[in-house]
Design goal:
heterodimer; A: mainly alpha; MetI-like fold; 2 domains; 0% strand; B: alpha/beta; Rossmann fold; 14 helices
């Protein structure tokens, strides 16, 4: 197990390098002018522009720029933006919001999704099952920005007017956990629907397995049959999905963060693209790649816990 | 134990007149409601088993032998399965009328089942110790530690080597024969009165088959349990069974004490089954096979279900369903325990 872990971590290095190279290349190939973007509508002052180009080596060939960036990263310097802010600072400022949001979303997705899936699977074809199928289909087919704005209006504005102030319309750090509830739910909504459907199908399939029949024949109470024998086996594909989704919850919050005015990673990415800030983009995306890699590693290790037939050497 | 002393050790069948039998199935019907129509899997099966007795239920795939067993265990999928009529009397009590929770308590503790494929029938994510111990924890309320000790005891009893060391292993770490022993141990755990073994040796290779059957017979003798052995292996049956019920198309077509059926079958289907066993003294000749296919349960042929495949079918076989006739000698003396659902049983047995 220890060896396996070390091998996986070593394997992550070329993946990270490849990711930085690819993203660096793509932002370079976009061909935007960060200096002009910084100046906005009006024409950038040629003197200032020349000075900035000189300072940030913007006129160097691509490979030289990439090499400079990479050596910087290895010394713990993620570079700085044209207006002189350290990329590392930007990320450490934004990251906690995104992590909190992702954790809330993940918890909602896992708890509600798995529970609803189990209930639907055990009442196959009944009203509750139909309800779950219909509502998940609805959530999957409506884009997040629609559900986001609608729920913001209904729960944030209308409900508040009725006197229930549970869901702040706009993000405010002083609200604490409450502030993350509605955004977290919206961020989780699509995945939540997938988790529900996945749990339902997976559990329905394992309920037909021979070992579940054995468990019934042993005279076990139904609850024990479902939880100890069927669910334990049904969880494996669900864990895979949840693990991969943890990564996309972190990176995919652009829309949700925008709707609720949360200054997280998603907002940072959007801003970096708008302002042609290649260094910010590379830094953030590399971080997200790292999160994906870690999430995948955890999932692979969880497999061995859930299924004793899987062993890593 | 060798296969020679095994046949001599077969317990003498108990007389059925010792009061109520351990299990009595009366006119059981089971159907499955599918999209294509109603599949009549079991159509009026009756049989009984006494304590210490072994009943072998014989028949090809789809003859209803496993479905009958699942109905007794109460593990039929309902729906689509349905039991429109019949009684399953266990120690005089009709299981079909029992509340779900009381039925559940009988499962595993009074009636247990051994399944065919031990690998898929054991849960891959739990240790065998946990799966064996679960019987004691759920039915006897034992602690985890005590139940594990019991599991080791059970594994010793079914002759699994190094039981103590292997109690924490998972099913996939055992060989096929050992896994089937674990299945047997699980069924024996609470010393039930009746065991239903659904083709317990089909998935095993021949040498292991004999060992597993020996073990089953031995434990059955020790605990004086009733055993319903579902199989399509006539060789296995001859060694361990006391009496035989042959099923075809969801009905019992012949019943007989074990050795008589080999000598004088009273139903053309049984005859066909016996003729299709390869024999060394007929080496080089073409092996007999019953022509045609098993009946479609959605549309069972009228009259005798076997008539389209029967070499001796007459007009009456296509119109009238034969009842299970009592089979007698030519001079009218009764042959106890024998019955044949053939209009021409006399010609078959005496002809």
């Amino acid at each position: 197990m220890g060896r396996y872990l070390i091998r996986r971590l070593i394997q992550a290095i070329p993946v990270l390098l490849g990711a930085t190279f690819l993203i660096y290349f793509l932002t370079f190939a976009l061909g935007g002018d960060p200096v002009q973007a910084l100046a906005g509508e009006k024409k950038a002052d040629p003197l200032v522009a020349a000075m900035l180009r000189e300072k940030y080596h913007l006129d160097d060939p691509f490979l030289v720029q990439y090499w400079n960036y990479l050596t910087g990263v290895l010394q713990g310097n993620l570079g700085e933006t044209l207006n002189g802010r350290q990329v590392l600072d930007l990320i450490t400022e934004a990251f906690p919001y995104t992590v909190n949001l992702a954790i809330v979303a993940f918890a909602i997705e896992a708890l509600v999704g798995v529970t609803a899936g189990i209930m639907a699977a055990l009442r196959r074809g009944k009203f509750l099952d139909q309800l779950v199928l219909l509502s998940t289909l609805l959530v999957i087919s409506i884009p997040v920005f629609v559900t986001g704005f609608v729920l913001q209006l209904l729960l944030g504005v209308e409900l508040k007017e009725l006197g229930f102030d549970f869901f702040p319309v706009s993000f405010n750090e002083s609200d604490g956990f409450k502030a993350y509830l509605l955004p977290g739910f919206i961020l989780a909504s699509t995945s939540l629907a997938y988790v529900t459907r996945l749990t339902r199908t997976s559990l329905m399939e394992t309920m037909r397995a021979d070992y579940v029949r054995t468990a019934v024949a042993k005279g076990l109470p139904r609850r024990r049959v479902v939880v100890n024998h069927a669910l334990r086996n049904a969880l494996i594909p669900i864990v895979t999905f949840l693990g991969a989704d943890l990564g996309s919850l972190m990176g995919g919050a652009v829309i949700t963060e925008n709707i609720f005015n949360i200054n997280g990673i998603g907002g940072l990415i959007a801003q970096a693209i708008r302002l042609d800030q290649g260094t910010v983009l590379v830094g953030v995306v590399t971080l997200l790649v790292l999160v994906y890699l870690l999430a995948n590693l955890i999932v692979d290790l969880l497999y061995a816990v859930l299924d004793p037939r899987i062993r890593y050497a | 134990m060798t296969s020679i002393d095994k046949t001599t050790n077969v317990p003498a069948p108990r007389a059925a007149s010792e009061g109520t039998p351990l299990l009595e199935v009366r006119d059981l019907h089971v159907e499955f409601h599918t999209r294509d129509g109603v599949a009549k899997a079991v159509n009026g099966v009756s049989y009984s088993v006494d304590a210490g007795e072994t009943l072998a239920v014989l028949g090809e795939s789809g003859s209803g032998k496993s479905v009958t067993a699942q109905a007794i265990m109460g593990i039929l999928d309902m729906p689509p399965g349905k039991i429109p009529s019949g009684e399953i009397l266990f120690q005089g009590q009709d299981l079909l009328k029992l509340p779900a929770d009381e039925y559940r308590k009988i499962r595993g503790s009074k009636i247990a089942m051994i399944f065919q494929d031990a690998l898929s029938s054991l849960n891959p994510v739990h240790t065998v110790g946990a799966q064996l111990g679960e019987m004691f924890r759920v039915h006897r309320g034992m602690s985890k530690k005590d139940s594990l000790a019991k599991a080791v005891e059970l594994m010793d009893r079914v002759k699994i080597p190094a039981a103590k060391a292997r109690v924490g292993d998972y099913p996939h770490q055992f060989s096929g024969g050992m896994r089937q022993r674990i299945m047997i141990a699980m069924a024996m755990a609470l010393e039930p009165d009746l065991i239903i073994a659904d083709e317990p040796t089909t998935a095993l290779d021949v040498t292991v088959q004999a060992q597993v059957m020996d073990l089953l017979a031995e434990l059955q003798r020790e605990m004086n349990m009733g055993l319903i052995l579902i199989t399509h292996d006539l060789g296995v049956v001859a060694d361990v069974a006391d009496k035989i019920a042959v099923m075809y198309g969801g009905r019992i077509v012949e019943t007989a004490p074990v050795h008589e059926i080999y000598k004088r079958p009273a139903h053309p289907y049984t005859r066909g089954l016996l003729d299709s066993i390869p024999r060394l003294d007929l080496k080089g000749q073409e092996l007999y096979a019953i022509k045609g296919l098993p009946p479609n349960l959605l549309n069972i042929p009228s009259g005798c279900a076997f008539n389209p495949r029967c070499p001796k079918a007459q007009d009456v076989c296509r119109t009238d369903v034969p009842v299970l006739h009592r089979v007698t000698e030519q001079d009218g003396t009764e042959l106890p325990g024998r019955g044949s659902a053939c209009h021409f049983w006399k010609e078959q047995i005496h002809g």
